[in-house]
């Protein structure tokens, strides 16, 4: 037990929620006459296109009522439009996306800032001809009437509101099914490398409300695939995430025909939402250099107890000297039969980082075993040696992860749960063909659903973006600059290309903890040929993917040292006036820099190989290790201070809050902000910085114990819609009269249920407010600026830092009040939502202000009174 352990808050006071403020600028909207004039050609085109497509469908399939998906793009949003859609027979709500970066024009613009980009919605509605005719009738009524505010009968007035904001209307077409997913590029690559084999892919169907419609959609798509000489290999349905997917394969000549001309019956099929590649989640390039040998192994006792951390990754070399006896490898799919020993690269490295941390740092191994479920395997026909690892293409990833998690907590077939003690699942994989743009990927939706269902925290890598960096200056100019100027050039180039360096699925998961990488490790290395480190400071890695997350929530959540990436000139792309640099390959090497971890040896029989690597996978693995350490600390706190409390439902939210609670930007956030500052973005700088850094770099040691000058308290609870809890933190009296620097840090996390078919998506909105007597009032870092306080409330973790230096007048008995509120967001909250809270108050180390002791002596009596009250009720 540490000398000054974290403290638990007394049971909070129950009250009603506060009103949630907010609201942004108002867009200028055209008149209904102007809308009629502007959109008349689009409605005419829509009518003609729908009728033509209906004729095609009826000629191909007899006895069917043709249905197509309409896409309505609006500026801003219309609340509860889905309810109006459901009132029209023949309409079926398919979902909605939030869209950003819409350029203003003469009809739609921000009234206060006309040059500002706008946000809006894409509404998707399945329609037959009868329902479309009814909507067209409403449209004509809207444009013809004198009073644009006249209501529509039958609860359909929301259509009037959509017409007012309507920017475009069209059919969901071939471009939509292929463009966002990267499937065409993946198919071209498959055809180039192995044009004679069957090519597998995923078909994501529109999720229909009725089982009959789902069966009909599946049968239509299967028939079209068979007509092209292909087969359906698997089908997956998951109502909780509104997912209906098919795994299929087609001969190469059929794929080539689609690449040459996408307007085929299969691609035009109106049951299809997206086509996606499969088997594209690669794990590094394999070890392309001879490994080093680890000779510094200090003997430690083997772990005991139940596993808390699970790793879904490649198969590790479990008998490696660094891992032997420390892993529980569960391989129900017999993935081991596909691997050679020297190909177990990624899983071995991730397991090593979780068990031992970065071997550069000489840390003690975890005291619990780590559960490993291999979900990757070598690419069968890979030309490299060792072969690269990937998610196999004979399974839908949604199914694979669902089965893997269900096996942990419920079992598989007749077998019972294999590791129900797991609270954290590490997922250091990302789909390079699925950058997060506007819609939640099926896998991210699944992680969100699983996390709440089983009370488990997914720690997910943000994804590596290893494309070359175009600096926009000559090589001579770059090399003649000092290192600080070079760093500035690289940072500005990264931000200017941020839209092409976004999070990789499933990093957009709202309940997961998304981890980016910091360009740091503690290895020692000298200059090597033409390779260089572009950053002097403790900055995020140049390969670490950019946020934001869904609905502009802060993502990545945190960044953590994932090893230094070296760069060199990209000779193929550089031009005289545009110096281009790229990461040095391979990503796994036998020399520093990088995080040092166990690795399979190229030489058969050797079990002591180590190598250096870098990237967001490493950062996520190291954060999973930190979560395991926090879990043991949390258990100890409850055993010592609240042994009677069953904290199981709160463990994942508390772990999430603890991992974020120690986060800070430090000086780096301000320096990055200064590099990016312009007169136009000055008030939004915190949002720009958080897209790269999230809430910052966690100092995990700060949530394992306290100091004389810093007290950290944990709280937890469950809330339903309209409810709130108030926690009270006693103020240390000796601080009141002192004009000393002080900081208040508050972090709250929860796992939200989801409403997969809605734009809001997050069913439960929780947020805290700080009241009472507040000794530090200046918002800092991610919660600063005009929009910072809103941004930190958009996800499922809210982290705010307040600082001050004024002597605040307060007396013994005064308290800081932390009010945690809950309201429904995207749908009904059917069960209370569990949350975890961490609050720290601190002054500068060394000051003669006993913050910890003064708070502890005032919080203890409140806990004792609460315990006595509870016993009396019992």
TrEMBL record:
One of its GO terms (biological process) is proteolysis. Residues 307-660 form the Peptidase S8/S53 domain. Residues 1-27 are annotated as: Disordered. CDD domains: Peptidases_S8_Subtilisin_like_2. InterPro entries: Peptidase_S8/S53_dom (IPR000209), Peptidase_S8/S53_dom_sf (IPR036852), Y4bN_pept_dom (IPR034074). This is Peptidase S8/S53 domain-containing protein. It comes from the Bacteria. It comes from Desulfococcus multivorans. GO terms for molecular function: serine-type endopeptidase activity.
